[in-house]
Design goal:
CATH class of the largest domain: Mainly Beta
Mean pLDDT: 89
Low-confidence stretches: 1-5
Distance between the termini: 144 Å
Structural class: mainly beta
Radius of gyration: 40 Å
Strand content: over 45%
Oligomer: single chain
Number of strands: 30
CATH architecture of the largest domain: Sandwich
Largest sheet: 5 strands, antiparallel
Number of helices: 1
Number of domains: 2
Amino acid sequence: DVVAGSSGSLLNSTSVLTTDAGSVPPASASLQVEPQPTLSKAFAPTQIFVGGQASVVLTIDNPGALALTNVALTDDLPIGLLLTASPNAQTDCGGTLTAGAGATTVSLNSGALVAGGSCTISFDVQASVVGDLTNTTAPLQSSAGGTPTATATLRVNPVPAFSKRFEPELILADQTTTVILTIDNSASTLPVTGMSFSDDLPSGMFVAAPSNAAQDCGAGTLNATSGATLVSYSGGSVAAGAICTVRFDVGVMSEGLFDNVAGPLQTDVGLGDAAATARLTASPGAMPVPMLSHRAISLLLIMMLALGLLGLRQRSD
């Protein structure tokens, strides 16, 4: 038995055979060695948000002149990646493809591939963790022997963080404060569009006049009407690696603690971070200072002068 180290037409010749009867010319034979099949893997798209989905495509190429039989392949998904509820698993490699909903392993058995042909295996996966998830298959097996593994990496980004604060968070009951809602996409390499949320103000809180409503989250629309108790925002966007804010002023009708919950944040890829919560503390307003009329002030001055004169007379006596 011999093993070929490369593909192509290999000529093997013996040396001259020498015997007592004389010499015999060398013998030759050629062997056509076909190239091994190749295996490649890709995610589409290559980046998603956590909770999102991507398609996996495995491609088997057979550049040789011999058909392949007994094609078998196993793909064990990394931690944090599993097949979707409807994995849409397909192949044109023949054989039996096993790819169950929620599974972490995909396998092909008893496949076949014609000479000079290619075939694919595809299925959908969902990511449950953030990070770069690297997926490497087992070696491809076939009648041509074993083929090296295939590797691809899927980047899974966190959803944008959603937070809220009052500035200042301690006011008098007759003052106003600014609500600041922050959408933080700084940890992601993907932009976010279609952002929307609502902020139902707690009892006793209302949008101030003027509202000073403003936002820097793209071309979004902020509805914050003075006197209203419900604020809404829609159509916003934030770039990859960026942070944006939505703000407006509010007032309160009385002293007390006001817990305000906004959201959750909705985006074009589904839910963003959980609802954002902040607390405002309102102390009693300043007491009004009584104002004296001009006549009362004059009478007070006369009384003070009279008391002063009376005191001087008593000391002189």
